[in-house]
Amino acid sequence: MSKIIRIGTRDSQLAMWQAKTVQSQLEHLGHKTVLVPIKSTGDLVLDKPLHELGITGVFTKTLDIAMLKGIIDIAVHSLKDVPTILPKGIIQAAVLKRGNINDTLVFKDNEEFLSAKDAIIATGSLRRRAQWLNRYPTHTIVGLRGNVNSRLEKLENNDDWDAAIFAGAGLGRLNITPENSINLHWMVPAPAQGAIMITALESDEETRAICTEINDEVTQICTTIEREFLNRLEGGCTAPIGAIAYINKEEELNFKGILLSTDGSKKIEVVKVVPLGNHHNVAEFCADYIIGKGGKVLIDELTQGDKITNIYSTKQLTNDQKAMFHDDVVAESNDDIKINPNRLSKSVVRNEIENVIITSQNAVESLLTNFSAVELQFKNIYCVGRKTKRMVEKRIGKVKHYEQYAKDLANHMVEFMDGAEVTYFCSNLRLDTIPDILSENNIKVNEVEAYETKLDAKKVEGDLDGVMFYSPSTVQSFLQQNEAKGIAFCIGDTTATEAKKYFKEVRVAKVPLVESVVELVNEFYK
Asked: What top-level branch of life does the organism fall under (predicted)?
């Protein structure tokens, strides 16, 4: 045909190799082409890591603009550098057969540093950094940017560095893989690593049809799944996300995905194997699995970056609870009270006890630490809180009556309890509410200190919008290290009563659950 296909490419040595590979394949099929090298922002800014440049597609944006302006017909990219959502009007036209998918470690002298406590590894990739620190947490990671040759040169010139990590495909394509290098088969590569992608204008049907002639279907299937997984996790260059899919001899699609915190201390993995043909929902399933295992919290932490904490929880929150917060919330949580079960004498439960009060799950844990469920012969059990009731009935026995608040339970017992004596399994920091009400109504209270509550708050830096409290003890503990500033978000009235002694504004959850306190915080930010 007479049309000359203008092939846009970055002007780095590796990008030119990729573009010439596309050019060779197209010309082998009889098409005329010309290379159009264009310098990208990613090549010009070498003094910052990729994730600090503030945009996705740092290596593709300039070529996208050139295509939309009609300067080039197609663009050739390393597929791992391409954003998962392409600009309007541009589509993926083809993917070449994939090369080496592995990350490669290039080292100075030998591999002894791998077993050493201290070592310095160079990489500009958050994904490589996180996975390396997850495997070698005592090592130090330093930044490394530039083209492949300049990075190899920097490794050679920095005497303190032990090794640097490269994409194996890049080294191989330039035929410069050093002898002192190994493939890191344990490291999950970037989604679509080792693949070359061609983009074209959606409206240019003639060029798109030509590109399909060199498309590799297997690579297309695998990289599409990897990129969809990446997209569903909302990750670009700024998130430590890895993914690899391949088709084995049994015609099965194998997938492995990974998400980490930037320091490598947290890692969530997923593996899925399905027959080819049933692979269309693999990316969605695996991304949902990662999110359900705490991935949303990790992504939120990455998104928040250096934002200052504005909400503090005096109880360690679960990943699901953290995921409930409004987007404007930057939450920090800690168990400001520590619970230690006391050693209880066998004489405490030697005989059946007619009436027992249990006001927390901590008391249940303490009882079961000291005695078997069979030894806990309680005739009538009275509880505070729905969760405590469920735990008692699951592990000890049926609950006679429960209320959400201590005052309501005490008043109920005054009116309906049989007998004039009760055993109260409590903490060393228990409130006076139950003993006072019962004693005033001639009910004898035998207190058994089942567990110790230790105040163990941390100092919180900066001004907070609010603090989440779950018991009077958490209020007392927090104020040992911090001032009463912002709003006190409280789980119930008893906690709020204590908070009102110190905080100007106190808000109380409608239901005494941690999730209800989170909702209380969200209402403030709405």
From this structure: Bacteria
| Sequence spans of domains, the chain | 1-96+192-215, 103-183, 217-305, 307-336+456-525, 338-455
- Residue 129, both tokens: 């950094």
- Quote the CA–CA distance of 336 and 316 in Å, as a whole number: 8
Q: Which residue has the tokens 């659950």?
A: 513
Pick the catalytic residue from 73, 81, 204, 465: 81
Q: Is 81 a catalytic residue?
A: yes
Name the CATH superfamily, with its identifier, for domain 217-305.
Porphobilinogen deaminase, C-terminal domain (3.30.160.40)
Q: How confident is the model at residue 56, as a pLDDT?
A: 43
pLDDT of the residue at 499: 96
In the predicted model, residues of the chain with pLDDT beneath 70 are 1-2, 40-60, 235-238, 303-307
Check: CB of residue 169 under 8 Å from CB of residue 35.
no
> Half-sphere exposure (CA, 13 Å, Cβ side) for 98?
24
E strands, 475-514, in order: 487-490, 505-508
Give me the phi and psi of 396, to 5 degrees please.
-125, -60
Q: What is the pLDDT of residue 60?
A: 65
- Residues in CB range of 255: below 8 A, 6 or more apart: 225, 226, 229, 243, 244, 245, 270, 271, 272, 273, 282, 283, 286
The phi and psi torsions of 370 (rounded to 5 degrees) equal -90, -30
> Nearest CA to 514 among 328, 359, 361, 320?
320
Q: Beta 444-455 vs 466-469: how paired, if at all?
A: unpaired
Domain 307-336+456-525 CATH (choose: 3.40.50.10090, 3.40.50.970, 3.40.50.2300, 3.65.10.10)? 3.40.50.10090
Quote helix, strand, coil % in the chain, to nearest 5: 35, 25, 40
- Residue 510 is predicted with a pLDDT of 87
Distance CA 160, CA 218 (A): 42
- Nearest in space to 192 (alpha carbons), one of 274, 108, 283, 118: 283
Cα 127 from Cα 134, distance rounded (Å):
11
Distances, alpha carbon 74 to alpha carbons 8, 124, 192, 197, in Å: 6, 28, 19, 10
Report pLDDT for 43. 44
Give dist(CA 334, CA 457) in Å, integer.
Answer: 8
Task: Give the span between the Cα atoms of 169 and 177, in whole angstroms.
Answer: 9
pTM of the full predicted structure? 0.60
CATH of segment(s) 338-455 = 3.40.50.10090
Q: Domain 1-96+192-215 carries which CATH code?
A: 3.40.190.10
Q: What is the pLDDT of residue 357?
A: 97
Residue 24: both structure tokens together:
């060779």
**Which pLDDT score is estimated for 200?**
95
For residue 378, give the 3-state DSSP assignment. Answer: strand
Q: Where are the beta strands (DSSP E) in 10-89?
A: 32-37, 74-78
